[in-house]
Design a protein that fits this description.
The chain is α/β, with parallel strands linked by helices and about 500 residues long. Helix content is about 30%, strand content about 20%. A hairpin with a 2-residue loop joins strand 2 and strand 3.
Length: about 500
């Protein structure tokens, strides 16, 4: 009992969703000359703070079509590689209007005005089904480019893709704010934090499992997939994502994808759904399979999410099938859809594009917490996944006697994510013995104060690196762990 407060605190630290935006009232000196306003000077190429502020304030309500203002003819760049079309966003706001609490602010000096680009996700474009449903926000840097005869072109640069531009024959670094636009998305998604718990105790998840691209797809940057742990959501990756975006080498090389899944189901069941959704996403983004981004994938996973991640890089062959079923797949009475589901669930193939997996506090051999009184109490509140249970009930009706005695519980509504983490469970033992396939490198990060996953469970035979940091179960929040993740991400491809 004395460990309960510490355990609850450890869970909170592992699953927290930091970051809040607070609007601020700016106090700035006025630097305009007697004959020109700050906005006029911005239109003529001035980049001092007063001119930037004036341009940012004007952009909030400016018409994004050709217009006349104080003798200037103003038009927006139509958009293209690294530049947003003026009509893409519902609204633009200067990042200087906000301060962030809960995340370290990351800004860069340069020309242009850092903005939050806000767009409601109305699924107007096909790719938006893969963007966060709560909102689409982008780090934008606006630059006013003077032209002949008092003409001005406004360019809305995608700061994630463009670092410098050439003006007047000289390369110029673009100003940037990566934190405020990200915090704006986190604010919109804050209600998702509650689903980390509600999706476990309820039979209905408030959100379907799926991937979310939190930046525009780039065919040249490697996907970095983040998979959260038990009782958690992708909001847990906020701090790490903010720090990774602040590193120019990582920002140039990777694009962040996040995966959300309800954590009441057994990890291997969730893993099957995730693999199928990943295949679907990759096919949608690159139908021909020629994009450099599709040739290599890196995964970061925490706790239970690490079991989903490992499934991407192992070859089970018949190890699970023989343990669960009494007869071959080909002999069962199944519909085509049921056959396909079972084949992918038990005989799946490793995804060869997965280059590296960073496992953070992952219970490869289960967790004694699942066997403790707290775990047993938790099992009473964790709701079984109806789809999971109903599927096996349906096929067993047509195939009586198909399950081995040890797996009769598959149809009895007793298998949940917590139950599946019991040490020495048959499936856990089988999965633990499966090595990562050649070509995929594993890296391990653990917390020295982890009350959920001891070192005996979180180690990975054959791992390329292993690091223990002074942290609890939320090891990936630790500064040493963040530094280690950055080091791994900058390694050469594993294959």
């Amino acid at each position: 009992m004395r460990h309960l407060p510490i355990i609850l605190l450890s869970l909170a630290v592992a699953t927290c969703a930091p970051a809040r935006l607070e609007r601020i009232t700016e106090k700035r000196p006025h630097h305009a000359t007697a004959s020109q306003s700050d906005l006029d000077r911005a239109f003529e190429g001035a980049t001092d703070p007063a001119a930037k502020h004036a341009l940012g304030d004007w952009l909030q309500s400016a018409p994004r079509s050709q217009s006349l203002l104080d003798g200037y003819t103003i038009h927006f760049h139509p958009g293209g590689n690294g530049i947003f079309a003026p009509t893409y966003f519902d609204r633009l706001e200067p990042t200087s209007h906000y301060k962030v609490t809960g995340l370290t602010p990351h800004q860069l000096e340069g020309i242009g005005v850092p903005l939050i680009g806000h767009r409601e996700n109305r699924h107007q474009q096909p790719v938006e089904r893969w963007y966060p449903p709560e909102a689409i926000t982008r780090a934008v840097t606006a630059v006013a480019v003077p032209g002949p005869g008092h003409t001005v072109e406004i360019r809305l640069y995608n700061r994630a893709k463009t670092e410098t531009i050439t003006l007047g024959g000289k390369p110029q670094p673009l100003a940037a704010d990566f934190t405020v636009p990200f915090a704006a998305l986190l604010e919109k998604a804050r209600p998702l934090a509650r689903s980390g718990i509600t999706a476990v105790i309820s039979r209905k998840s408030p959100r379907e499992a799926g991937f979310a691209l939190i930046e525009e797809y780039d065919p040249n940057r490697t996907p970095l997939i983040c998979i959260h742990g038990l009782f958690s959501t992708p909001l847990a990756w906020a701090e790490l994502t903010n720090e990774l975006w602040a590193d120019p080498a990582i920002r140039r090389r990777y694009q962040v994808w996040q995966y959300l899944y309800p954590t009441n189901s057994p990890a291997l069941y969730s893993a099957r759904i995730m693999r199928g959704q990943l295949d679907e996403l990759r096919k949608f983004l690159d139908p021909d399979g020629h994009d450099p981004a599709m040739q290599r994938t890196v995964v970061i996973a925490h706790s239970n999410g690490g079991l989903l991640a490992k499934s991407l890089a192992v070859d089970p062959r018949n190890a699970f099938w023989d343990a669960v079923f009494t007869r071959p797949l080909s002999s069962l009475n199944l519909t085509r859809s049921e056959h396909k589901t079972l084949d992918e669930a038990f005989y799946w193939k490793p995804r060869t594009h997965v280059d590296r997996i960073i496992f953070c506090s992952v219970p490869f051999r289960g967790s004694n917490w699942a066997n403790s009184w707290i775990g047993k109490l938790g099992q009473r509140f964790v709701a079984p996944d109806d789809k999971f249970q109903d599927f096996f009930r349906q096929i067993e009706k047509k195939n009586p006697g198909m399950l081995q005695p040890a797996y009769q519980s598959l149809t009895q509504g007793k298998i949940t994510s917590v139950v599946a983490l019991t040490p020495k469970g048959r499936s856990m033992e089988i999965f633990d013995r499966l090595p990562l396939v050649p070509g995929t490198k594993g890296h391990v990060i653990t917390g020295s104060h982890d009350l959920f996953v001891p070192p005996s469970s979180s180690s990975l035979p054959g791992a390329e690196s292993s690091l223990q940091v002074p942290a609890g179960h939320g090891s990936f929040h630790n500064p040493q762990a963040i530094a280690e993740i950055k080091r791994i991400l900058l390694l050469p491809p594993a294959h």
